[in-house]
Amino acid sequence: MVRMGPDVPLLNEYKQEFFWKRFPQTVLGGPRFKLGYCAPPYVYVNQAVLFLTPWLLGGIGTLLCQLKLLEELHAAVLSGLLMLGAAVGVQALALYAARRTGTVERLGVPNILADEEEVEFTHCVGPETVRFIAPGKRFGLNVVLHTVLAGALCGLGTWYVLLGRLTALYDNVGVALVVFVLSWVTLCTAEYSLIVNTATETATFQAQDTYEITPLTRPLYIFTFIAVDLADRFTGPVAELQLTSQVLHVVFLVLPLLWALGMLSPLDALFLWGMEQALVFGLGGSPMSSNLRLLGMFAMSVCVTVCTFFIPSTLGVTLFSMAMGFLLSLDISQFLRHCSGGSWEARDDQGWELLLYLGLLLGAMAEAGLMHHFLSPSQNQFREPQAAVGYLLIILFVVIWALREIQGAYVFGVFLNPLYPRGMANVQVFKQRSNGLHVAGAIRRVLLNLVSPFAMIAFLAMDGSVQQLHTASLSVGFTRAFRVVWQSSEDALLQMVVVVSVRLAAGDSQLPGWDSLGTGVQLLLVGLLSDRLLQFLSKLKFALAVLVTSWTEKKQRRQSAGTLLALNSSLCPLLLSVVVLSAMLSAPLLPLFTLPIFLVGFPRPQRSWPGPVGTACPCSDSIYYQQMSGSLASALRSAFARGSLGVVVPGSHFLGRFQDRMVWIMILERGYGYCTVNIKGLELQETSCHTVEARRVDEVFEWAFERPERLGLNQGLNLHWGNALTPCAALPVRVYSDARSVLSGIIDSHDNLRKLQDDFLKALVWLLLRNSVQRRRTFPWGAEEGAGSRKSPSSRLGPSVVTHPAEAIMVESNVSPRRFRQDSSSLTSFGDWSDEDDLFGPQPARRTVALVSTEAQLGDTVRQTGPSLPGSVEMDSLFENMALSALQPLQPLGLGLPAVDKGRNTEVLPSETASTMAHINFSCPHSELFSLPPGWRTAPLLPSRLQQLRSLFPEEWFGYTLGRLALAIHDEASEDVSNALKEDVGLKDLHAQVALSCLVSLGAESAFTSPSYVYRVYCGDVPWTEGLDWLSENKELYQLALKAFRYSFKLLFDQASLGPMESPEELFSTLEEYEKDWYIGLVTERSWQDSVLQEKPFLFSLGHDLTMGTYTGRVLSLQEQLVQVGRLNGEGVRGQWANLSWELLYATNDDEERYSIQAHPIMLRNLTVQAADPPLGYPIYSSVPLHLPCF
User: Fold this and answer.
1) Is residue 411 helix, strand or coil?
2) ∠ at Cα 988 (1081, 1066), nearest 5°?
3) Model's pTM, two decimal places?
């Protein structure tokens, strides 16, 4: 992303035109009076008539009612029936137009560009005109439902705004007339959106309205207003209800404005938000990690509350509420999942956990029952036993709060904690310095999870208001109180301390309004008020940050910054009112385009997004976050239990930083002994905006964790207090440390390149011997001497003869390559060209009858014929006793391949030497273990050529490796066996032939000449050589050769950095270490990703920076490192996400360089946008909800 200046347009010209066409449509409920192109007048007239139709039809009923010709109810029914007929007519026209035009609507995918389509109109009621004005419904059920609702809405709306009713409410005809006119505007917008054409709402929760829920949003709010009015009509004169009706009639007038500003939730968001608020504050639960869990937990909690109301005994109510509160605060589904599908060890752990929870449940029930039976007063009063428990709760609260504050880097988020270790680069030293804090954390854990719940249960069980539980409010209050004790012990402790403090402050005096509520309702109100107060403070801090930084940050200062600052200052009461309203509704504070223009976003669940948790935009870097997520989750589990991250509640956001990795952590759910989190990983390829904010994050963490421990008073403050990020703690996490280096002076050194050839042969020999042993690991030494086994003749005679199958005998001498690269830089193949070659390809060398007869005498396998086709006739070939089906098919050759040098036909290739291929004489009977497959010995290379390279073969290293592997395979192998293996010339020649053939095939016959060639071979993009096709056909050998080359380059890298290998023992141990603890390859390979997920200790990759023209080495080291974690302003995150949702889903401002995504070092705007759920955000990794036991 190119970082732009502060005066970049909020919307580009195209989007501005689009927005100003869409926004009037939203205000009016759907009519499109601004099209952007010329349209006939009847298009606008038809829309105006349809918009005013409900008013006209409702006016008929209103007029008849005013003339005393109809009663109010009959007038409302008449208007409703007329509107029902009109709605049926509109839907019939829409269906007719759809059939005439033959348009097929794709279900679930709304036409986003419908506002931009230019329609050619031919007639005022033509199909295209009807289709444009009233597109119709996608589902037949919605046609019926929306039509019926349109009639009901018009009828009830007529009744709601009758002039007689309005005059009776306000005792003023003028006011009633104004309310009447404006109310019908609201009704017309709702009717048009429901039955004609649905407007795009600014309050958009889902990216797609698959089931056409949006048209129901406006009618639902109107029905709510009408329901209150009907309650006022039929319940008699209730002053509070009449006042509410008067206020709502006034609010009814501004509903179109509220819909246009996006302050009222769509139905899906409203439903989820309402359930979540009722579950948390009314039933004592927690926000859930998924919509299904929220629905299930809400249903169970309501059932418990209803059962509590009907239990006759107060003791039974106490025991039942306490037991169900404890059980519902546990994550039973997770526990059952582990027990049914986990390992035996996991089941044992779950068994101990079950016993612990069972003991806690029985102990709490016994305590509640005894306290209630013996110490509960007959009336609501603060007796001495309960007062003593109240003092204990205050002490516990102070101690737990103090122990929590000393766990983090800051106290109150402002003062540096002198007890927190800083400047610790070594993880072990950090852990040792943190032992004291861990002890304090363990004490806090015991007090919070074991002592406090029992103290709070004692306080509730002894309360006198328990005797009055058969009222609805007290039943709800005490059911919630007994549950929140377990669900959120820290919050419950705060609420009880507040209640106790109020009672102690009141003393013997009575507080009639407060005391009559009962302890349960008092706790409910305290919990609601404390939550809203904390939200208000967080939103106010966020608003001040946006307001102040719009002027202080030069790169954020727009031309309108001064005007907006003055406007907010002059309208400060209005700004505070917006913040208070958003806090009361638990709705996000929406800064429009992230400017200091604040709106109240529509209420939505804490998760902010409708989709399931775990969606992401994965890429190759996602595996690094996936690998660290498990270890990070374990570290978070300990941090939550100790309190290092402060008060952890659902909706909290944390940011973790390690090297170039940014981890976004969101708390989804919290209960007794568990916490559910979502871990997201942000992009590693940092853009300029990402880099600016990442640099500020590093500065904030450095000030908190890297400063010297002894600081002066002026340095002991959090100078970044206004930042959205507040550092909390450094967590030890097992993660890959990424080190990159430029290889200039290493890969381009001629000495190193010459050494690379020798290292390659040594690594290849080591891999060949090791691979042979692994392939035959199931055949131990001396297996032929076991019971039931028979010795082969070669074993009894001493030297072993290995007989190979017929597939090893190659009839065709010239193996044609399957691919040829014209950009080949191989210098070894030029000598094989000849101008006299046949353009149509070389002819296969024919074999004489004598040669075939000689080969046939070596074994019956030569005479075996290949399978013939059904119905075919076998024909004798030019060879004796051989069918044509026994010959391998000739491989096709392409034009332009190297020709065969006619002058070199005097030598026979290894593939033509029958005696060589049919058997190999080993002088040691154990050499079979180290033999190589027959296909690896058929390289199309002349023996004289390999003989010239024989001096390159590391014979001493071969003998040393052979002896080490022989001793490692069998402990009882004597030195004589090792010596015999080393002296076996046949075995040595076999490995020399294969190793040197691989050397020539990779173009390393002479020393590697250039870094580019080394890089190509390392990447597997080997330039064409004479034996490359043979090597490619033997896939296993090719992989071993490529692996050996990569090992040799890693040896080059290590020796250039640490010095040369001094002994064969050191080289052998180094290669063993490579095989066991390293993955050496390319970042783009699948094996690299698998190695990261398998947590290989080390990974190495060679890269090429095309822009700089340099070669780079990358080393990943798995080790325990400190990941710095800080708390984000949750309300700031919700506000920016609310703006993102409005800007992309409504304004469709998806410009990658828009103002609202530019870097903001205080608000961390770019990082926050990245962390949003797709399709609006783009995290490269997002975990499923992770259940963390943190008892």
Assistant:
1) strand
2) 50
3) 0.84
CB 548 within 8 A of CB 554: no
Q: How many CB atoms lie within 10 A of CB 128?
A: 16
**Tokens encoding 674:** 């568990």
User: What does DSSP say about strands 589-591 and 674-681: parallel, antiparallel, or unpaired?
Assistant: unpaired
Residue 602 has what DSSP assignment? P
Q: Rounded distance, CA 323 to CA 306, Å?
A: 15
Which residue's structure tokens are 């066991």? 1076
SS3 label, residue 921: strand
SS3 for 1079? strand
Please give the Cα distance from 23 to 45 (Å, whole number): 20
- Give me the percent of the chain exceeding a pLDDT of 70: 82
Residue 549 to residue 1158: CA distance in whole angstroms? 14
* Closest of 213, 203, 207, 217 to residue 261, by C-alpha: 203
Beta bridge partners of 733: 1121
Average pLDDT, rounded, for the chain: 83
Partners of 666 in the beta sheet? Answer: 653, 678
- Print burial letters for 592-623: b (CB count within 10 Å at least 16), e (below 16): bbbbbebbbbbbbbbbbbbeebbebeeeebbb
Residue 987 predicted with pLDDT over 80? yes
The 10s digit of each residue's pLDDT in 446-501 is 999 999 999 999 999 888 877 776 788 888 999 999 999 999 999 999 999 999 99
Give the start-end residues of each E strand in 252-409: none
Question: What are the beta bridge partners of residue 1124?
Answer: 657, 730
Which secondary structure element, helix H or strand E, spans residue 11, and what is its range? none
Specify the pLDDT at position 849: 34
pLDDT score of 774: 83
Residues in the chain: 1191
Say if CB 1179 and CB 616 are below 8 A apart: yes
What would the 3-class secondary structure string for 448-493 be? Answer: HHHHHHHHHHHHHHCCHHHHHCCCHHHHHHHHHHHHHHHHCHHHHH
The counts of H helices and E strands in the chain are 42, 15
Tokens of 1037: 């050998």
Burial group, residue 319, by CB count within 10 angstroms (0-12, 13-18, 19+): buried
DSSP string, 708-761: -SS--GGGSB-TTTTSSEEEEEEEEEEEEEEEEEE-TTTTT-HHHHHHHHHHHH
Cα of first residue to Cα of last residue in the chain, in angstroms, is 44
Cα-flanking dihedrals φ and ψ of residue 733, to 5°?
-130, 140
- Asked if residue 828 has pLDDT above 60, the reply is no
Cβ 739 vs Cβ 1015: under 8 Å: no
For residue 899, the 8-state DSSP code is P
Q: Strand locations in 719-870, DSSP E?
A: 725-742, 800-801
DSSP SS3 for 962: helix
Residues forming a β-bridge with 310: none
Q: How far apart, in whole angstroms, are the C-alpha atoms of residue 478 and residue 460?
A: 8
Residue 430 burial (CB count, 10 A): 18
Q: Which residues have C-beta within 8 Å of that of residue 9, sequence separation ≥ 6? A: 16, 1155
Query: What is the enclosing helix (H) or strand (E) of 191?
Result: helix 173-195
What span, in angstroms and rounded, lies between the C-alpha atoms of 538 and 1134? 11
Q: Are strands 415-416 and 410-411 parallel, antiparallel or unpaired?
A: antiparallel
Place of tokens 């890693």: 1050
Give the amino acid at 646: G
Q: Are 689 and 3 in contact (CB under 8 A)?
A: yes
**Phi-psi category of 970—alpha, beta or left, where left has phi over 0 and alpha has psi -120 to 50?**
beta
DSSP 81-141: HHHHHHHHHHHHHHHHHHHHHTPPPPTT---GGGGGPPP----TTSHHHHHHH----SSHH
| Nearest of 672, 699, 561 to residue 1155 by alpha carbon | 561
d(CA 621, CA 579): 40
- Strand, coil or helix: 840: coil
